[in-house]
Design brief:
binds adenosine-5'-triphosphate; 2 domains; ATP binding; five-stranded mixed β-sheet; alpha/beta; six-stranded mixed β-sheet; ATP-binding; globular; 35% helix
């Protein structure tokens, strides 16, 4: 990956020996040899007592992305996450963390470097919120700044700002037990972000919440991220959550990473039967984006404006593009028809054709089709690049998880008419 990395794992093993000291080291050496000989986790624990938390993990997490680590219980997600801030010791390989213009090697960090990293570069949000019950909301959020000995005025300003951003300013003087679970986790989030870390570690932060609140907090996190651009490493065992939040997802099994990819890579091109099995249970509406399901317009490299025609649901559409790729006009069965860019703020007028961006989800496309009764146009940076009709939507709904949409039956590009 050419983008700047925030964290990089290079051939990382994390093994948990049953004892410390020399006995532990001997067993670790035996376990490492077994790992290299291709023995399973079960074999290794049986003969050496060593638990393989993570094995041969290679990851590059880009600055500013939400990177999700997903897998079943015991697959090694938390083990990997906790290695980023030094809570788990690396047995072999190395982890590099970027902090400002420095690169910190987490293999054997000096205590002072580790403290500085935890105080300034990496913050964590926990599943069970981990708020201090005797402190008010405000005093909980202040914690990280207190450890840094930040001045009172600066602390107040930062805490107020974050409490406001998570919608809890009116609750600043309350205690944790007076807040709902969702509100407590918002405090956890504000507490982690108030120190302005480079990397935010989130370990199943929404798992303890009921589905409605969970969904709301996911939306809030995505909306905060639009302005924060933090590097977030997010652990979950829920594929729908992973697909919704992740720019990229790593799937783990038995301590190993078995696939890393964008949500659509995971859904449409699962690397193994194991991943495909997961994907069969996901919700395609919130996983597939317009870019994958659309039928592309084949405008060529030097299109000088063009006319395209297509048929959807027995209606005939013609669209013309200007030389810069923007829409000039659209007709349905010979009659001009209005279009409306879908921006999430203003509702599409009845009967108008919606224009979604390539990043919009299948659910947005379905909603637009439902609303207008017409296909949906797909744009990228203002240029029309494709459209989604009934067949494209059906294909996406029925083929997702069988990995046939793009591999075995590619949708042909439409040539200019
Ligand atoms: N400190 C530790 N000492 C010994 N074994 C550990 C330790 N931490 C994790 N393990 C073991 O490592 C393996 C991976 O655990 P980990 O907590 O990373 O899994 P996980 O995918 O996060 O699971 P969960 O979703 O249940 O938290 C498990 O077998 C676990 O028992």
């Amino acid at each position: 990956m050419s983008t700047e990395f925030a964290a990089r794992f290079e051939n990382v093993d994390i093994l948990f020996p049953p004892a410390e000291g020399r006995a532990g080291r001997t067993r670790l050496a035996a376990a490492t040899a077994m790992l290299d000989a291709g023995k399973t986790r079960a074999d290794i624990i049986e003969s050496t007592g060593v638990v393989v938390g993570a094995a041969d993990v290679n990851l590059e997490i880009a600055k500013g992305e939400i990177f999700v680590i997903m897998g079943l219980s015991g697959s090694g997600k938390t083990t990997v996450l906790r290695a980023v801030n030094g809570l788990n010791r690396i047995s072999r390989g190395r982890i590099l963390i970027r902090h400002g213009d420095q690169t910190v090697d987490m293999t054997n960090p000096a205590p002072a470097a580790l403290r500085a990293l935890r105080n300034r570069a990496v913050s964590m949000v926990f599943q069970q919120f981990a708020l201090l019950p005797w402190r008010t909301v405000r005093r909980n959020v202040e914690l990280g700044l207190e450890l840094r000995r930040t001045g009172a005025a600066e602390t107040r300003e930062a805490v107020d700002r974050w409490l406001d951003l998570v919608g809890l300013l009116p609750w600043a003087e309350k205690h944790a037990h007076e807040l709902s679970g969702g509100m407590q986790q918002r405090v956890g989030l504000a507490r982690a972000l108030v120190t302005d870390p480079d990397i935010l570690l989130m370990d199943e932060p929404f798992s303890a919440l009921d589905p409605l609140i969970r969904n709301k907090l996911q939306d809030e996190l995505l909306s905060l991220q639009q302005s924060m651009h933090k590097t977030i490493i997010f652990v979950t065992h829920d594929l729908d959550e992973a697909l919704k939040l992740g720019n990229r997802i790593a799937i783990m099994k038995d301590g190993r990473v078995i696939q890393v990819g964008a949500p659509e890579d995971i859904v449409l091109r699962p690397a193994t039967d194991y991943v495909a099995e997961f994907v069969r249970h996901m919700n395609p509406l919130t996983a597939i984006r317009a870019a994958s399901l659309m039928r592309p317009l084949d405008t060529g490299d030097d299109a000088q404006g063009a006319q395209f025609s297509f048929t959807d649901d027995r209606s005939h559409y013609r669209l013309s593009l200007r030389p810069d790729g923007t829409l000039d006009g659209l007709s349905c069965n010979g009659a001009a028809i209005a279009v409306h860019p879908v921006d999430g703020e203003t509702a599409t007028p009845e009967g108008a054709v919606g224009i979604v961006e390539t990043t919009h989800l299948l659910k947005d496309v379905v909603e637009q089709r439902q609303r207008s009764g017409h296909p949906v146009l797909v744009a990228e940076d203002g240029c029309i690049v494709g459209w989604c009709g009934a067949n494209e939507v059906l294909d996406a709904l029925t083929h997702a998880g069988r990995a046939t949409m793009t591999d075995a039956s590619p949708t042909p590009a439409l040539a200019p008419s």
